[in-house]
Write a structure and sequence with these properties.
CATH architecture: Beta Barrel
Number of helices: 4
Radius of gyration: 18 Å
Largest sheet: 5 strands, mixed, barrel
Number of strands: 7
CATH topology: OB fold (Dihydrolipoamide Acetyltransferase, E2P)
Distance between the termini: 34 Å
Mean pLDDT: 87
Strand order of the largest sheet: 3-4-5-7-6
Order of helices and strands: HEEHEEEEHHE
Number of domains: 1
Strand content: 35-45%
Shape: globular
Structural class: alpha+beta
CATH class: Mainly Beta
């Protein structure tokens, strides 16, 4: 009887654990998060701002989960890295909703860095060779991330 009750409790805990969101980095909440598509307009002409953002993951670094790209307006994406390289996200979260908090900023990404990111994403040598210009883009450094289940 004890074994049956113990097994039932383990099952309940396993289901409860699967239903919870995944937290990475600093523990944050999802209250008052701005939609990723609205972030560029919220920033306006500012070069940087603190924000909490919700969006859909387009892709993740396949080397170790050290960055993710989140869909913004008009099919564009924003690269999200993690503060002080202090945490990573799972590599299999493309298509999932995430909430992240930290600093958004406009940044010029060098050709070398863009090529490095392309390698991390598993791009072909031909695709990587086509990267010849730096890119001025919206980026984000997250203190914490919630991956919604």
């Amino acid at each position: 009887m004890k074994k049956v009750i113990f097994s039932a409790l383990l099952g309940v805990f396993a289901v409860a654990a699967q239903a919870q969101d995944g937290y990475f980095g600093e523990k944050i909440n999802d209250n008052n998060a701005v939609a990723a598509a609205e972030l560029p307009a919220k920033m306006g002409k500012q070069e940087k701002m603190t924000a909490k953002v919700a969006g859909t993951v387009e892709s993740v670094c396949q080397a170790k989960g050290c960055w993710m790209k989140v869909v913004t307006a008009d099919g564009q994406t924003m690269r999200v890295t993690f503060k002080d390289y202090g945490f990573f996200v799972p590599k299999d979260i493309a298509g999932k909703t995430v909430v992240f908090e930290g600093e958004a900023k406009m940044k010029t990404t060098s050709v070398a860095e863009l090529k490095h990111y392309a390698e991390d994403a598993g791009k072909s040598k031909e695709e990587i060779a086509k990267i010849t210009q730096p890119k001025h883009e919206l980026t984000f450094v997250a203190d914490g991330v919630i991956v919604k289940k």
